[in-house]
Amino acid sequence: MYDVLIIGGGPGGYAAAIRAAQLGGSVGLIDASDLGGTCVNRGCIPSKIWMRAAYIKNMIEHSEEFGLKTAAPGLDLNALVNRKKEVGQGIRGGMTALLKKNKVEVITGRAVLKGSGEVAVDNKRYAAKNIIIATGSSISVPEIKGLKDALLTSDELFDLTDLPKTMLVLGDGPIEVELASLMVAFGTKTTLVIPGRRILPNEDHDTSLRLTLALQEQGLAIVNNSVVESVGKSENGFQAVVGDKALEADRILVAKRQPNTSNLGLEAAGIKTDENGFIAVNNKLETSAKGVYAIGDVTGGWMLSHAASAMAIAASENAMGGDSSFRSSLVPRGLWTSPEMAAVGLTEEEAEKAGYDVEVGDFPYPVNGLAMLRGQVDGGVKIISDAEHKEILGVHIVGAGATEIIGEAVMALQLECTAEELAHTMRLHPTFSECIMDSARDVEGWALYLPPK
Ligand code: FAD
After folding, report:
1. Nearest CA-CA partner of 289 in 112, 111, 110, 117
2. What is the pLDDT of residues 406-451, one digit of tens each?
3. Mutational pocket test of ligand 1: of 39, 181, 260, the residue with most ligand atoms within 8 Å of the beta carbon
4. Looking at the chain, which terminus has fewer C-beta neighbours within 10 angstroms, N or C?
5. Binning pLDDT at 50, 70 and 90, where does residue 453 land?
6. Nearest residue CA, atom 9 of ligand 1?
7. What is residue 3's predicted lDDT score, i.e. its pLDDT?
8. How far apart are CA 141 and CA 147, in angstroms?
9. Is the pLDDT of residue 32 over 90?
10. Atom of ligand 1 at shortest distance to CA of 31?
11. Whose CA is nearest to atom 53 of ligand 1?
12. Which numbered atom of ligand 1 lies nearest the CA of 305?
């Protein structure tokens, strides 16, 4: 009998296994496929390898601004696909070794819950005092007539060795926006078809606007308030019917996610799901069944690797007798677009809705020294703060380095820092992180490098 038996070896399950083992538990980890889950094999790692290639390409194309004469970069996608494979292998190898060192027993196969602390894998049964479900998510293809032939999923994208000349990307979420920007960077004529008014509807409206303007300038077309109704063959590829428009594309990219819960035995184990099929959990990551926890993408919310691993730590600590909570309000979000985007905490709209007397600071990248010298002036840092208690409620960054400097905003929120405290900190000069300090000074009404208001 295991103390903790985990289903799924993605970033959630892997972190849960190590944490439970650190706390002295006997731990089993079941995965139906390759360790690393979506993140290592089809998500974060492959996409960021491709985004890095796009970034380097852009650097080379702009190298003359820094006095460097180089030839236009050619593209060898085989090398990129090989890099993805090699990096994935390396990470999976490291995971296997670390699990072994932590004495975690890895079981390969598809798990089915059998109720009251039992899990079946093929014909074998495993008993556990606690079970953690970390089965993640997978692609959800919308039912659109004729889509099948034109369909390209994000699972397949990073194995392409030939890029389509034209592409439609369906959806307004972070994965769709990031991949659309990637395609643009590689020269594919790309159109993002979004159901609402703006991209990234869960992010602050200024973030959405800043990123939209930058991506449109790079050549991304956005068709808003629209969905693809049907797809048919055309002379050169496919034609998607979108309202009264017919959009031409070689391929149509879909990256929407759904929870991996089918045939998992949730009903037998008495585990409830929410209205969208995600496993319902409280902030201790407990499900409706005693001794069964769920973490990561399968629980919905912010479907991100670091959220999965933060949930994993809390779930394993609780399974091992602790009392830990997961704070979804502190989950940072990011996009590795050019410029990057990153955020943590409440948007301006959310803060207002929650009844706060909202104060806003905004510091534009064009005034930042490093941004100027590097020619990376798209963006800005927006801080949302509570006028009454002065606590920082949210930080929203569009700009170079955003995905790194958001870390200090996460820390500020976690430590319940005020805008005044942040305004009186120092940064190395010249750095992008100065924008966070300057934006806090703007909240306080004394941004040194902005004209008086
Ligand atoms: P998963 O990683 O999905 O792992 C679940 C595991 O469970 C899989 O290995 C699967 O084989 C296994 N499994 C499922 N069912 C069973 C079963 N019945 N029995 C046994 N095993 C089972 N997140 C970020 O934070 N940053 C990023 O930059 C980022 N980029 C992304 C880019 C793309 C294109 C995509 C698609 C996702 C991206 N994500 C990113 C999201 C991230 O990949 C997920 O949030 C993360 O992988 C979720 O981790 P998880 O452990 O919950 O599930």
Report:
1. 117
2. 999 999 999 999 999 999 999 999 999 999 999 999 999 999 999 9
3. 39
4. C
5. confident
6. 37
7. 98
8. 9
9. yes
10. 21
11. 136
12. 25
What one-letter code names the amino acid at 23?
L
| pLDDT surpassing 90 at residue 96 | yes
By the 8 A CB rule, do 291 and 117 touch? yes
**Angle value at C-alpha 426, between 424 and 428, nearest 5 degrees:** 165
Cα torsion 287, 292, 295, 300: sign: negative
Q: What is the pLDDT of residue 138?
A: 98
Could you give the CA distance from residue 222 to residue 190 in angstroms, rounded to a whole number?
9
Residues in contact with ligand 1 (CB, 6 Å cut-off): 7-13, 30-33, 37-39, 42-44, 47-48, 110-111, 134-137, 154, 175, 255, 260, 264, 296-297, 303-306, 308
Amino acid at 224: N
Compute the distance from residue 199 Cα to the ligand 1 centre, in Å: 23
Per the prediction, the chain carries an average pLDDT of 97
pTM over 0.70: yes
Which among 27, 22, 25 is positioned nearest to 9, based on CA atoms?
A: 27
Distance (Å, whole) CA 402 – CA 435: 10
